[in-house]
Amino acid sequence: MVKELINISSKQEFKNRLRKILAENAIVIRKKLSQTFLVDPGELSFIVKIVKNESVNKPCIMEIGSGIGNLTVFLAQENIDKTIISIEYDQRFAKILKELQENFHNIDIVIGDARQIVTSIRRCNVVVGNLPYHITSQLLLSIAKGIFDTAVVTVQKEVAERIASSPGSKSYGKLTAFLQHMFWVSYIKTVPLNKFYPKPEVHSAILLLKRKHSYDNFSKIFENMVKCLFSYRRKVIAKALAKCIDMEINEKVEGLKEIWRKRVYQLSVEELEKIVHIFAELKK
Fold first, then answer.
1. From CA 281, how far away is CA 268, in angstroms rounded?
2. Disulfide: which of 61, 161, 195, 256 matches 40 by Cβ 3.0-4.6 Å?
3. Sheet (strand 126-130) strand order
4. What is the pLDDT of residues 2-12, one digit of tens each?
5. Are 181 and 229 in contact (CB under 8 A)?
6. Can you give the pTM of this predicted structure?
7. HSE (side-chain half, CA atoms, 13 Å) at 165
8. What is the distance, to the nearest Å, from the Cα of residue 256 to the centroid of all Cα atoms in its chain?
9. Contact status, residue 66 vs residue 89, Cβ threshold 8 Å
10. Beta strand 37-38 with 196-197: parallel, antiparallel or unpaired?
11. Separation between Cα atoms, residue 260 and residue 177, nearest integer Å
12. SS3 for the chain, per residue?
């Protein structure tokens, strides 16, 4: 039973118990769904501790990709006064999660595609999950457009480094700029691949995202502008802007002189926000 996972302190024993549960339910892991489970009790407790600290006075925590419930059970146990909404895409895990729900009254199970669900959630401000690798970017964009104040997500290490990267670096791109516009981003720690079952091909990392802006009309313009500008990431902003907007803006506009000759990938999020602000004002 999944509930018993919470009493296991050994990674190997945790993995053995998880494999047994999978076998009893005739579930074969699907690589195409990026199914891999964190089986290190220490890492699971570490994540739950961050979530607990970030959800003080919050009524609800949403988990993306519950899978077998290995993180869900820790979340439910340590946040008994909160509702844990656990979203799982794969119907085959529904029976296991239902059994877990019968042991923890604070768990709500939702079987569906988190990419469509997270933007419609209206009563949860904290989200956590080991995001499936093949849809990480899509899920992060959905989280950014939702109402979450805080996200604690485990993603591929390379993706985490990209999201936390600085202007001018090779990793800095449109996803970085948009997420750093929406959140304060902290790279918490690397999680080695041997702490998962089945073992993935790459290391993972935990990110903490804390809300900076809501997804309003300005952020929509910012998202579209950044998407276009980074199509010309090595061009100077003067030339890139000419391809992205339907009006003429020149370096004489107040605030642009100091950044006019920078290349797109060298612009900080604050400088990109300044450009969008000027564009939005001129459009009025």
1. 20
2. 195
3. 107-111, 83-88, 60-64, 126-130, 150-156, 204-211, 183-191
4. 777 878 889 99
5. no
6. 0.92
7. 22
8. 32
9. no
10. antiparallel
11. 18
12. CHHHHHHCCCHHHHHHHHHHHHHHCCCCCCHHHCCCEECCHHHHHHHHHHHHHHCCCCCEEEEECCCCCCCHHHHHHHCCCCEEEEEECCHHHHHHHHHHHHHCCCEEEEECCHHHHHHHCCCCCEEEEECCHHHHHHHHHHHHHCCCCEEEEEEEHHHHHHHCCCCCCCCCCHHHHHHHHHEEEEEEEEECHHHEECCCCCCEEEEEEEECCCCCHHHHHHHHHHHHHHHHCCCEHHHHHHHHCCCCCCCCCCCCCCCCCCEHHHCCHHHHHHHHHHHHHHHC
CA distance 157 to 204: 4
Contact 173, 162 (CB under 8 A): yes
Would you state the structure tokens that stand for residue 186, as one six-digit string? 């902290």
Query: What are the backbone angles phi and psi of residue 238, rounded to the nearest 5°?
Result: -55, -45
pLDDT (tens digit per residue) in 149-178: 999 999 999 999 999 999 999 999 999 999
Which residue is it, tokens 């802007």?
241
207 bridge partner residues: 153, 187
264 to 164, 241, 272: CA distances (angstroms): 17, 9, 9
Closest CA to 233 of 144, 172, 146, 162: 172
